[in-house]
Amino acid sequence: MSPPPPFGRLLIANRGEIAIRIIRACRELGISPIAVHSDADGEALHVRAADQSERIGPAAAAESYLSIEAVIDAARRSGVEAVHPGYGFLSENPAFARAVEDAGLVFVGPSAAVLEALGNKLAARRSAAEAGVPIVPGTTVALGDDPEPVEAIGFPVMLKAAAGGGGRGMRRVDAAKELRPAMDSARREALAAFGDGTIYVERMIAPARHVEVQLLGDRHGSLAILGERDCSVQRRHQKLVEESPSPAVSPTLRTALFESSRRVAAAVDFHNAATVEFLIDVEGNHYFLEMNTRLQVEHGVTELVTGLDIVAWQIRVAAGEALTADVLEASSRGHAIEFRLYAENPYDDFRPTAGRVTAWRMPDGPGVRVDAGVDRGTELRPEYDPLLAKVLVHAGDRPAALARMRRALDETRVGGLETDAGFLRWLVDDSAFASGDYDTSLIASRWVNGPVLTDEEAALASAAAVAARMGATTERPEAVPEAESDWGKQARREALRR
Amino acid sequence: MTDYEVRIGGERCNPAAGWTLVWDDRAQGIARLVSGTASVPVVVEGNSSDWVVTLNGRRIGVSVLTRRERLLADAASVERTHAGPTIVKATLPGLIVTVAVEVGDEVAEGATLLTIEAMKMQNEVRAPRAGKVIEVTVAAGQVVATGASLFRLE
């Protein structure tokens, strides 16, 4: 017999693949999932998957998915008991967490106070340093106009926004003369994106691996450390590929990462799901970057190797359940990899594209999981994130996982718009990625804008297009009557005779 | 059989011989190129002379031209390079953030004309060739659709 559901109804304050992921968790827990949608998403996949959907405003995210008032209204109207924010949008907004609680509802995430404390990256840096966790050398106070503290660190450096996220307000600076304009533009970008232009500086760690540790905590003081994920394949400081375990993490380093994560989490009264992010240098030193107190895009990688349902546990923990022994003692089995399928052109600096999905076939079979937010016919909107789907594989070891991913990508067919599929297909066979010995510069140094089209690829594409044109032409091609073979004439005579 | 000329990125290309296109799901353009025991998954979109073939995840634009279409295409490209204004269009929908040039400005090929915010990213629209800006049809703050005219270069 299944246990009683943690909640009767739950509102998902998000869209796309993550809304669908949460809807699935709700269904398995016996909760009625309620979606929200902007005017652009009335027929979206997540709306169709939910029991009911509330309109929250026009297409612009600022007036719909980012509107605290509109989302709280929808929660009240639909009579839910809890709100899951997903990732992005309002997920790390302390004012939203507080508004949910003030409405007498449960926020599926940490408390507003924790979001506040960790949302400011600079404050989080200070708190990590105080907890004895190594941080990237740099300032722990806001950077003023004086370039001296930056010059003292030594170039190259990274400028970062205190309110930052998603790579915005981030600038690499290689020399003193570039500093001033970089400071100005980083401040401007941070102010525009977050309403806060505060920046700080860190020494550039390069080459580096980007590794994060998954945490799950309950309201009773238990904390589960669910292994690490390597997120070193990035463009614009945003992740494209994640895998667990990290090929760069030795058992000794893993112990150190887990210990640092435990200390960072202990410094705040944390519960629910979070990720502690680190940079790892070539000597195997680790440096705290930030703690994200929400569900991560790449949580599925950890779900595959641990066999746990992180989203379901977020909801159960929010309802006051304690983590069970199988969560607290979870171990990692095999190797999992996630490739993110984005509507971006990898041959043009991964520039976002838009359009209608005209062909859509996702891989399946043993060890393959797809979390998709679109289907055939979906019109991709410029207002929202261009993530189409996440393709995940799980296998006994890394080589088997790579072979499985290659097979999965060959089954994947998308038409109608540019995607990063060409990059992903290249990556799976790239010698650096295949060896596991790669770092955050992989795209910039090895892919650049992709290999040139080979003669063989051009000849195959040409053959396909010519065949399609000949088959697709409703009028017979001009020369056919004259050139028709005796076989053809014979066949037609045969046909007429019947 | 009609003699088609095939071009990829403006360059002539010879189709690989001996391959058959087998539709798997015609409505979606999902197909395989088959030759003996070899099979290559593709997605084929388009009609008439304009096709896009997705091979190994990469979208490849392919022109399949009859003799008549070839002559017309060549004439049009001669026209483009030798005479008349060029209209710069939006290649993706989004919000115009900044407009960097004014009517009368001389711009170099590749110069930034404006930035469009789409998918949370700022994208620069660059001049396809050198020339004088003779018309600016958009302003900062405006939302444009794909294909919207942005500038005219003399």
Tell me about this structure.
- The complex is a heterodimer of chains A (498) and B (154).
- With 498 residues, chain A is of the alpha+beta class.
- Chain A folds into four domains: 9-108, Rossmann fold, CATH 3.40.50; 137-203, Dna Ligase, domain 1, CATH 3.30.1490; 208-447, ATP-grasp fold, B domain (D-amino Acid Aminotransferase, Chain A, domain 1, 2-Layer Sandwich), CATH 3.30.470.20; 464-497, no CATH class.
- In chain A, 38% of the residues lie in helices and 24% in strands.
- In chain A, a hairpin with a 5-residue loop joins β15 and β16 (351-352).
- Chain A starts with 8 loop residues before the first strand and ends with a helix.
- Chain B has 154 residues and is mainly β.
- Chain B folds into two domains: 5-68, no CATH class; 86-153, Beta Barrel (OB fold (Dihydrolipoamide Acetyltransferase, E2P)), CATH 2.40.50.
- Chain B is 10% helix and 53% strand.
- Chain B has one helix at residues 67-82, and strands at residues 5-8, 11-13, 20-25, 30-35, 38-47, 50-55, 58-65, 86-89, 94-99, 106-107, 112-118, 121-126, 131-136, 143-144, 149-153.
- Chain B is elongated.
- The mean pLDDT of chain B is 86.
- At the A-B interface, β16, β18, α13, β22 and α14 of A face β3, β4, β5, β6 and β7 of B.
- Based on helices, strands and strand pairing, what is the structural class of chain A? alpha+beta
Strand content of chain A: 15-25%
Using only C-alpha atoms, the radius of gyration of chain B works out to 20 Å
Globular, elongated, flat, extended or rod-shaped: what is the shape of chain A?
A: globular
Count the helices of chain A. How many?
Answer: 19
Order of adjacent strands in the largest pleated sheet of chain A = 13-12-9-10-11-14-21-19
Helix content of chain B: 10-25%
Supply database-style keywords.
heterodimer; A: 498 residues; alpha+beta; Rossmann fold; Dna Ligase, domain 1; D-amino Acid Aminotransferase, Chain A, domain 1; 8-stranded antiparallel sheet; 19 helices; B: 154 residues; mainly beta; OB fold (Dihydrolipoamide Acetyltransferase, E2P); 2 domains; 7-stranded antiparallel sheet; 4-stranded antiparallel sheet; 1 helix; 15 strands; 53% strand
